[in-house]
Amino acid sequence: MTYVIVGNCINDTACVDVCPVDCIHPAPNEIGFKTADMLFIDPKFCIDCNACAEACPIDAVMPAHKLPKHFRHYQAINAEYSIARLK
Ligand code: SF4
Ligand code: SF4
């Protein structure tokens, strides 16, 4: 399982600050942060701790299995970003 960030993310980095495994990108010190429309969770490293969901001020992050239908495509968007950033 993994957590997923959905498109109404406001890039305030509250989730980045609390993630124990640093699997939310781009972080403020990484390439692409200033131009990113949203942040993304790498499903390979997410340990499902829920810290990001608790920290997010606008409920823009949630467990993949609880994504409402209109947000389900964001699971693939988060995963694809995570693969692309390591190439
Ligand atoms: S659930 Fe935990 S490990 Fe996964 S992205 Fe959120 S804070 Fe990081
Ligand atoms: S805490 Fe929420 S709004 Fe802020 S960067 Fe993370 S997912 Fe986006």
From TrEMBL:
Keyword Cell membrane: no
Listed PROSITE patterns: 4FE4S_FER_1, 4FE4S_FER_2
The keyword Ligase is assigned to this record: no
N-terminal signal peptide: none
Stretches assigned to the 4Fe-4S ferredoxin-type domain: 1-29, 37-66
Keywords per UniProt: 4Fe-4S, Iron, Iron-sulfur, Metal-binding
InterPro entries assigned to the protein according to its UniProt record, in alphabetical order: 4Fe4S_Fe-S-bd, 4Fe4S_Fe_S_CS, RnfB_subfamily
PANTHER family per record: FERREDOXIN (PTHR42859:SF2), OXIDOREDUCTASE (PTHR42859)
Full protein name: Ferredoxin family protein
Annotated organism of origin: Zhongshania aquimaris
Classification lineage: Bacteria, Pseudomonadati, Pseudomonadota, Gammaproteobacteria, Cellvibrionales
